């Protein structure tokens, strides 16, 4: 049988490697359990917890109005983070997709790329309940 999808693309010298992806926790980690103080950065830089409560966060993009959109891999969600200065709030924008790690923002629209689906959310920063435009057919994606 062919190798699992996560192992495809490895060279012959990696064929016997036991390295495998480490799945992240699918629950929110309490801020007290995030070891920010143990991170080392060069002089002049600082480390702080900016937002939390988004399990599986993987890739992010800033929208036109300053909101941050975060794609996930294993959990199948896209989050929206709103910055209100000292406090940030998050909400789930999309749920139940297959690895929607790809997020992009252009001309007021959020684009979400999953393994088997491409969605566009027009005006999402102003209209939180906007319905997606399914653009999947235009990309002719393979099943995997």
Portion of residues in beta strands equals 25-35%
Low-confidence stretches: none
Structural class: mainly beta
- Overall average residue pLDDT: 89
Helical content class: under 10%
Order of helices and strands: EEEEEEEEH
Numbering strands along the chain, what is their spatial order in the largest sheet?
A: 1-2-3-4
The gyration radius over C-alpha positions equals 18 Å
Q: How would a crystallographer describe the biggest sheet?
A: 4 strands, antiparallel
State the total count of DSSP E strands: 8
Distance between the termini: 15 Å
Overall shape: it is flat
Output the number of helix runs: 1
Could you please describe the fold and organization of this structure?
Helices cover 3% and strands 28% of the residues. It is built from one helix and eight strands; from the N terminus they run ββββββββα. The chain has one helix at 136-139, and strands spanning 57-62, 68-72, 78-83, 88-94, 102-106, 109-113, 118-122, 133-134. The longest helix has 4 residues, at 136-139.
List keywords for this structure.
144 residues; mainly beta; four-stranded antiparallel sheet; 1 helix
Q: What is this structure's SSE topology?
A:
Layout: E1 57-62, E2 68-72, E3 78-83, E4 88-94, E5 102-106, E6 109-113, E7 118-122, E8 133-134, H1 136-139
Antiparallel strand pairs: 1-2, 2-3, 3-4, 5-6, 6-7, 7-8
Quick recap of the structure?
3% of the residues lie in helices and 28% in strands. The chain has a 4-stranded antiparallel sheet with strand order 1-2-3-4, with no helix packed on it. A 4-stranded antiparallel sheet has the order 5-6-7-8.
């Amino acid at each position: 049988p062919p190798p699992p999808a996560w192992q495809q693309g490895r060279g012959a010298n990696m064929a016997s490697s036991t390295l495998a992806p480490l799945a992240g926790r699918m629950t929110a980690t309490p801020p007290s359990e995030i070891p920010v103080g143990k991170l080392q950065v060069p002089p002049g830089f600082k480390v702080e917890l900016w937002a939390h409560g988004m399990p599986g966060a993987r890739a992010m993009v800033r929208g036109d109005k300053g909101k941050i959109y975060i794609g996930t891999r294993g959990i199948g969600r896209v989050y929206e983070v709103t910055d209100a200065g000292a406090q940030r709030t998050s909400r789930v924008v999309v749920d139940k997709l297959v690895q929607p790690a790809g997020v992009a923002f252009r001309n007021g629209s959020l684009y979400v790329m999953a393994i088997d689906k491409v969605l566009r959310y027009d005006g999402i920063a102003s209209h939180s309940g906007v319905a997606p435009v399914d653009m999947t057919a235009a990309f002719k994606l393979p099943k995997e």
